[in-house]
Amino acid sequence: MAKFIVRRFILLLITMILVSIAVFMITEASPGNVAKNVLGAFITPEQEKSFLAQMGLDKPAYVRYIYWLVGSDWLADDKVGMKLRRVTTEDGFVEWWAVRSDGALVRWKLEGDDLIAVARLPSLGVATEYTNNGRWQTQEDGTSFFWGVDTANHVVKWEKGADTEVWNFVIGTGWMKASGGPVQYIPLKKGFIRGDPGVSLRTGRPVSKTIFTRLRNSVVLAGIAFVLVMPVALLLGMIAGLKEGSLQDRFLSIGGMIFSVIPEFATGIFLILIMAVWLQIVPGATVFGESAPWQRPDMLVLPVLTLTLIELGYILRITRASMVEVMKSPYIRTAQLKGLPYWRIIFKHAVRNALMAPITVIMLHVNWLMGGIVIVEVVFGYPGLGKYLLDSAMFKDINGLEAGAMILVLLAVGTQLVADIIYTFLNPRIRYT
Amino acid sequence: MKGSKDIHPRIVELFDQLQDGRLSRREFIRYAALLGLSAAAASQMIGLPWPKSLSAADIRRGGVIRVATSVQKVTHPAQFSWVEPTNILRQVAEYLTYTDKNNITHPYLLENWKASDDLKTWILNLRKGIKFNNGDEFTADDVFFTIKQWLNKDVGSSILGMMGAYLDPNGIEKSDAHQITLHLKKPEIAVPEHLFHYPAMILNHRTFEGDFIKAPHGTGPYTLDVYKESERAVLKRRSDYWQKGADGKPLPYMDGMEFFDMGDEMSPRIAALRAGEIDMIDLATTGGTAAFQALKDYRGVQVKPIGTAQARVMRMRVDLKPWDDNRVRMALKLCQHREKILGLAYFGQGLLAHDFHVAPVHPEYCDKQIPEYNPQKAKQLLKEAGYPNGLRVNLALGSEWTDVVRYGEILKQDAAPAGFNVVLKTMPTSQYWEKWTEVDLGVTPWTHRPLGTMVLNLAYVNDADGNPVAWNETNWADPEFSRLLNEANGTLDVDERRKIFCQLEQIQWERGSIGIAWWQNNWQIVTRRVQDSQPHPTGYMLFNQTWLSEG
């Protein structure tokens, strides 16, 4: 068993790498312009270029993939010549600083032609500023450059003496002419395998801050639906399957069929119209505040009900079919001929075998419930993982998409593992080596 | 009246026009306000009572309004490209002026403004005693700093495209602690309107470092408590706001405002509003037709319409065949059955339009007869242009704008008798914006602007080098039109301006590059408990005076 689990784990890692490459390539190939998605249709070419450069999107695809996977700070360390450190401020903003030899944290900004360093000693929170022109390095053609950390979490190559002239406004001094400015950006991140999925291009927030909230919301929604559906669906499916063609079988099969064929957006809208608009029992949309989703349990009722109806019919029919098949098999007839009590035959012999198919389906559905319930989430305005993935895809927000995809891979492989383990309990003949 | 020292000489002129009956009262207030006379003073001059707010006893303090909107990524306010984030942050930071729902612009953070006779020097006098929510005093340094930010190329503000044409960074002068003088390169009348352009929020020069969310210090009535992109934003009332309510205590009346991001779908937002889970839907970008249809007869909801100069513009590239021939353009314009289009595409919620980009809500609008649907004449014109057997054209439409698509469908049907075979090319809206200036025939949504000159300057002229300006999507420029428009830009006398506009409108109708079938209404949709909220043509939420009744 241990060997089996280790093998599965390695398989999981390989799957994740392959999926991440696939997602990256698909996003790369799809049309659309991130800068326009984020900044609107009316940006100037200069704004677009500056946005792409600051986000690091002007680099070749493989470089961006490597940055995403293993981070960019190790590369930037060399450029700056100092260690870089990520800190989280009291207000929850993530900031990158270079670490000076005395332990102080430093960042730089350009005011006119002067390089200003902002230093913060860990002991006292206040930042001090001083001119730091000594760091300029002169090149052969007479221009100087400097690699440093700016105030917006990039490592930046600043140049001066170059041909491009820009006017910068310096507070307290006025307009100062500078020759040059930032020419190259490396957005700082730690990389996915070091636990940093990066910053969402769409929202500008770290993906990790949003995605776990979204995941939790989806887990709550799907979890409640799951807990409600499974016992009921399995029980009803078995009742229906025990006597094929009986009245209760017909009733349950047709009922299950009706609910499973109506698409969830239709069910959702009908439920909203009936329960929220007409009867006004529960709200028809989810508006969550601080302590979502527990703040207003009544808002969960309709989304859960919609999911439940769809799932119920589906699982019920699978269980029924499986049960019918088992009840026809020779060993059940043998057991009956042996004169075993009816309930003993059902629970001891039939059910265990009949559950194999439903368990497989259920475990596959866990994954569907996490990412695939996007329609239910959109209909009810529910802030879940599916909707997050949808929005990320619409905006070509690669960091958001990758993180969501990785979570889904993890879930898919994880639930499959759980299913495999459950099989061994249902059928002792199954052994994994 | 004559000889009063602080009054702009043109106001006297305007007043004479008013007394001669050549100017309506509303127009007088608008233009007097434009020249720095407060709306209250202007009202006094013409003997109108200045509308007073409700008596203090009626107004209830407290409560939190809940708004469904999209909580977008925000860094530098000057870089805003969508209205929704400004509707959240305009409660925190404020503008120098404000343009009300009647398109009249008033001083706001300004005490008043004065324009020189040649309209090239504008003196902005700042209101004294205003404090930022971090305790800093609001002074000319903040205005100086903020305007420089707008004009800074590296910031990349859309204001640069607007004000950059007449103002250089070195044309801003700090005259004293509470006065800024703008020295313009050429006369401009729309300076106060531009100061209310949505990215023009005044920033605190001491603390602003490029990201407003990190230092949310504005002069507005609320402070920013939570801003979580794509989730929600929470604003809390501040106690020392500079405006006083009807009860003599500082505004605002409400304790706070909450904004929820419920995604792009309209139906959950409508359901939430019906259930009273939210009080308002921000319709600034999405448009309100779906919400209007769903909620117009719903008891618990107030639907407040407002007429605008917002339009779906059928635009034809005059440098591409077959639209380089004015007869073809005129033929297609004549194929618009305007009553039918307004009725079917926009449920009759608006005004019929002529094929020029000046709306009846504009002060300088010159009334013209709406053209009839005339397929026979269109057919004749097509024949003269060399298409006796008809013409096949592709019409580019953004599929998410349902009214645009319906407009296209009606046009296709009504243009068929004239010989046009209009092929509808629908595409995702984002894709339309990728090539909106490039397609030869398409329908582009244009937003409302308070003055008639503003859109004409943006879309129907060439720049100094003779190339079409950035938003001139049809590449149409006409020497006579440009000359007249330039004249109108420097003419304050409404009557004179209207005379010029009569000619401008005639030229654009006769040989222009666009068809406009209707002007759209906008709506503000709020629940019953929201009181004293005004709809605004551009969907701005001006909610200082808004209060919530019980329940």
Structure description:
- The complex is a heterodimer of chains A (433) and B (551).
- Chain A is α+β, with helices and mostly antiparallel strands.
- Helices cover 56% and strands 16% of the residues of chain A.
- Chain A contains 15 helices and 9 strands.
- In chain A, α6 packs antiparallel against α7, α6 crosses α9 (301-328) and α13 packs across α14 (385-395).
- Mean pLDDT of chain A is 82; it is low at 167-175.
- Chain B has 551 residues and is α+β, with helices and mostly antiparallel strands.
- Chain B has helices at residues 9-19, 25-34, 39-45, 83-89, 140-151, 158-163, 191-194, 266-274, 289-295, 326-334, 338-346, 375-384, 402-415, 429-434, 452-459, 479-489, 494-511; strands at residues 64-69, 97-99, 105-107, 110-115, 121-126, 172-176, 179-183, 222-228, 232-237, 256-261, 280-281, 301-316, 350-352, 391-398, 420-427, 441-446, 514-527, 530-531, 547-548.
- In chain B, α10 (326-334) runs antiparallel to α12.
- Mean pLDDT of chain B is 86; it is low at 1-5 and 47-52.
Q: What are its keywords?
A:
heterodimer, A: 433 residues, alpha+beta, five-stranded antiparallel beta sheet, four-stranded antiparallel beta sheet, 15 helices, B: 551 residues, D-Maltodextrin-Binding Protein, domain 2, Dipeptide-binding Protein, domain 1, 4 domains, 29% helix
Q: What's the number of extended β-strand segments of chain A?
A: 9
- Percentage of residues in strands of chain B: 15-25%
The chain-level structural class of chain A is alpha+beta
Average pLDDT metric of chain B? 86
CATH superfamily of the largest domain in chain B: Dipeptide-binding Protein, Domain 3
**What structural class results from the helix and strand content of chain B?**
alpha+beta
Strand order in the sheet with the most strands of chain B: 8-9-10-1-11
User: How are strands sequenced across the largest beta sheet of chain A?
Assistant: 1-2-3-4-5
Q: What percentage of amino acids of chain A are in beta strands?
A: 15-25%
Biggest sheet features of chain A: 5 strands, antiparallel
Q: CATH fold name of the largest domain in chain B, please?
A: Dipeptide-binding Protein, domain 3
> Count of DSSP helices of chain B?
17
Q: CA-to-CA gap between the ends of chain B?
A: 50 Å
